[in-house]
Design a protein that fits this description.
Blueprint: H1 13-26, E1 34-37, E2 50-53, H2 66-72, H3 78-85, H4 113-130, E3 136-139, H5 144-154, E4 158-162, H6 166-169, H7 176-188, E5 191-194, H8 197-206, E6 214-216, H9 226-229, E7 240-245, H10 254-264, E8 271-276, H11 282-291, E9 298-302, H12 307-314, E10 318-321, H13 331-337, E11 342-345, E12 358-360, H14 365-377, H15 379-394, H16 398-413
Parallel strand pairs: 1-2, 3-4, 4-5, 5-6, 7-8, 7-10, 8-9, 10-11, 11-12
Helix pairs in contact: 1-16, 4-5, 5-7, 10-14, 13-15
Length: 415
C-alpha cells in the first residue's frame, strides 16, 4: 500500500481512513500489509502492519554502518535498509540525497509537493523490486504515480483508492496538472475504489472510466477506545454548542455555517458556535462572523487532533458538516459515535449510508438554521438523534469494509 498520512500524525481525513481501512483489512485471514509513507515519526501503530518510510529507502549507494542506520531510523530493522540498497536500479545522484543515500521527505503537503510526489514514485521503484507482494493499493492522487511504477515493475494488479478528486477540492476550478495525475492513475488501475457513489459517478463521468472497474467502498469508523469513551461531557444546562470541525476551506462550506449561525442567533441567544480547524478561509470566516455581529457567540479554537477532537465533540450539542462537495466525510460518524446529533449536507458521500441525522443542501442556510434550532430546542428530537445515531454508526465498522476489499483483491488476483 502506498499512502501519504498515518496516525497519529495526520492533517485530515486521509490518515484516519488509511488507519481504519488497513486495520479492518489486517483483521482478515491470511492478509499482510506493508504500508509505505513518505516519512514516519516512529510512534505509528505497527501491531497489524509493517510501515516502510520512503525517507529510509536508499536510492544512491552508500555504505553506512549498522548502528548509524539504527540511530537514524530507530523504528525500522536496519537490515531492511541494506535489502533496499541492493535493489537500486538507476543513478539518482542528481536528485539530492543525504549521507544514507535517501531522499528527505517532509511528510506533509509542502510547496514543492509535485517534486515530492515524483521522488516518492522513484523510491517506489526500489520498494517494488525488493518486496514480495500480490497486489498494489494506492491511496489518493499523491501516490498514484508510485502505484503505476510498482505495477510496471512487478506486473501485479493495481488498485487505486479515490478519497477525493480535484473537482471536490477546487469547487470545479480543476488544476490541470492534478487532473492529469488522477486520470493517469485511473487509466492504469485494474480497479478503482471510491469512498462513495457520489465519487464513483465523478470518476466515471469526469475521468471517463469504465463503470465495470469502478466500485463504491464506503468508509467506516473504529470503535472508540475506552479512554475516549471516558472523556466527560462538558455541557452547560442553559447553553448549547454547535460545532463545525474540519479544514476551513471552500470545499467544506464554512461560510454557510457562519450564515446559518447568524440566522439562528437572531432568535436564540443561548447558543454558541465553534469552528474548529484551520485553513485558507479561516481569517475570512473570522471577518464574516464579525460583519454579521455574532463574534461574541463564535469561537475559533484552531486545528485539533486526537483526543482534542473528541473533547470538542463531547462538549457539543449539535455537529454540522455543510460541505459543498464531500466525497465521504468521516467527521459526522465520529460525532454520532459520541452521541452528538448531526446535520450533514446532501452533497456528501456519508449521506448515502446515514439515516439518523438531518440532511440539508449545503447552500440552504435557512434549512440548516431550522435544523439547528430544532435540535437545540426540542429535547425529544435531540435524544432520538443522539441515541439512534450512535446505534447506526456503531454498526458501520472497518472490519466489514476490510472483508469487502479482500473479496475484490481475490477477484483481481484469482487467488
Amino acid at each position: 500500500m502506498f499512502g501519504w498520512e498515518f496516525p497519529p500524525h495526520i492533517l485530515g481525513g486521509l490518515g484516519t481512513a488509511s488507519y481504519g481501512l488497513t486495520k479492518g483489512l489486517a483483521g482478515q485471514e491470511n492478509t499482510e500489509i506493508t504500508f509505505c509513507m513518505p516519512r514516519p515519526f516512529g510512534d505509528e501503530d505497527q501491531s497489524f502492519l509493517k510501515i516502510v518510510g520512503m525517507n529510509a529507502v536508499p536510492v544512491v549507494n552508500q555504505n553506512p554502518d549498522w548502528n548509524y542506520v539504527k540511530s537514524c531510523f530507530p523504528w525500522m530493522n536496519p537490515q531492511d535498509y541494506y535489502d533496499f540498497r541492493d535493489h537500486i536500479y538507476a543513478d539518482f545522484r542528481y536528485i539530492g540525497t543525504n549521507d544514507l543515500g535517501c531522499i528527505e521527505f517532509s511528510g506533509r503537503y509542502p510547496d514543492n509537493l509535485h517534486q515530492e510526489i515524483n521522488n516518492y514514485s522513484i523510491v517506489a521503484g526500489v520498494v517494488a523490486r525488493t518486496l514480495q507482494f500480490d497486489i498494489i493499493h494506492s491511496h489518493d492522487w499523491l501516490t498514484y504515480p508510485a502505484g503505476i511504477h510498482a505495477k510496471q515493475i512487478s506486473g501485479k494488479p493495481l488498485v487505486i483508492h479515490v478519497h477525493a478528486t480535484d473537482f471536490d477540492r477546487s469547487r470545479g476550478r480543476v488544476n490541470p496538472t492534478v487532473y492529469a495525475i488522477e486520470k493517469n492513475g485511473m487509466d492504469y488501475a485494474d480497479h478503482i475504489m471510491c469512498v462513495s457513489e457520489l465519487t464513483r459517478q465523478t470518476v466515471i463521468n469526469k475521468y471517463h472510466q469504465d463503470p465495470r472497474k469502478v466500485s463504491t467502498m464506503h468508509n467506516a469508523v473504529e470503535p472508540l477506545p475506552q479512554e475516549i469513551q471516558d472523556i466527560p461531557e462538558r455541557k452547560r444546562e442553559h447553553e448549547k454548542v454547535v460545532t463545525f470541525l474540519g479544514r476551513i476551506t471552500m470545499q467544506k462550506g464554512p461560510e454557510y455555517f457562519v450564515e446559518a449561525a447568524a440566522l439562528v442567533l437572531k432568535h436564540s441567544k443561548n447558543i454558541r458556535f465553534c469552528m474548529a480547524g484551520s485553513g485558507d478561509m479561516m481569517n475570512a470566516m473570522i471577518t464574516l462572523a464579525a460583519e454579521r455581529g455574532i463574534a461574541d457567540h463564535f469561537h475559533f479554537p484552531g486545528f485539533m487532533k486526537g483526543r482534542q477532537v473528541y473533547e470538542c465533540l463531547k462538549s457539543s450539542d449539535v455537529y454540522v458538516m455543510p460541505s459543498v462537495s464531500e466525497p465521504f466525510g468521516i467527521s459526522p460518524l465520529e460525532a454520532m459515535q459520541c452521541g452528538v446529533p448531526s446535520i450533514i449536507s446532501k452533497q456528501s458521500g456519508c449521506a448515502e449510508i446515514l439515516d439518523k441525522c438531518i440532511k440539508t443542501d449545503y447552500w440552504d442556510i435557512h434549512a440548516m438554521a431550522d435544523a439547528i434550532n430544532s435540535i437545540c430546542n426540542n429535547p425529544a428530537l435531540y435524544n432520538y438523534l443522539r441515541v439512534e445515531g450512535k446505534k447506526e454508526v456503531d454498526a458501520i465498522t472497518w472490519d466489514k469494509v476490510g472483508a469487502r476489499i479482500l473479496d475484490r483483491y481475490k477477484q483481481l488476483t484469482n487467488y
